[in-house]
Design goal:
single chain; alpha/beta; Rossmann fold; seven-stranded parallel beta sheet; two-stranded parallel sheet; 10 helices; 13 strands; 38% helix; globular
Amino acid sequence: MRALITGVAGMVGSHLTDALIARGDEVIGIDNLSYGSMHNIAHHLDNPRFQFLQYDVLDGRAMEACSEGIDIIFHLAAVKKVGEHGLLYPTLSVIGKGTLVVFGAAAKNGCKVILASTSDVYGSGIPPFRETDPPVIGPSYVKRWGYASAKLFAEQLAYAYFGDFHVPMVILRYCGSFSHRSTLQVGGHIPIFVDAILKDKEVIIHGDGSQTRPFIHTHDLINCTLLAADKEEAVGQIFNIGGEEDISVLDMALLIHELVDTGKPIKLKYIPIESVFGQYEEIMKRSIDMTKTKTILGYKQQIPVREGLKLIIEKWESIHMGG
């Protein structure tokens, strides 16, 4: 199979490249490196079955050219959640226009598309979230809702191209993934906690830390992504991909501290949620229903959260701490 990955130098994109190359596929990866790191894909640069191109997903001509002769496009490129003091336009532009560009290229060149969406689209609905649940999105004047709204628009584009132009596609709603390639900027709180605890710094907790998330090691997320890409029954459908263990933010910090075992007390610092996200209503519980994913895709978790944390701590020490 010949695959094109947008956002190839990010956490998910680089791990997906590893998996595709390992099974004998060819990969063209594009990334503008605004968030991704060349370090994540450096070990593939001399491989004849891998080609890296520093392009922006908004470049329609480049995307059309890159997707010629491609069987499947994994569209991962995005600008992630924005806080009260961040810029909203890049999130809306990259996700909205970027997805339009990707599906336009796929329609022209006969490619299948795997669209990376997010569990954020469920908004403030009632968990556990199922793929058929309606989104409950907050007011437009709250910046944080821009990410979820943009991803919902991307999903609508996917269905428009599937229905109107017969582009085969699968939508994957990712939730809570982590690995040693997570970034401190957009990788969620696990890498932030690991880095802070290893360096004996303050661990910042938003609110009281009681909000829970279903964490999944990226190894399992990639396995599930490939199942979705390979199964014909998945075409035209949406699947949740996330962990099966709901853990609170505070408990995650304490667990990481236990596993790092520095011999020093953890330095917790609590800050108000509104100081980071403004009027955004924090989603306190984001558990997802994985029944459909297990039934249709045959997904089975391979790495429990505790084992996944041990892996990220070990790798983080080696890469970032000189260990």
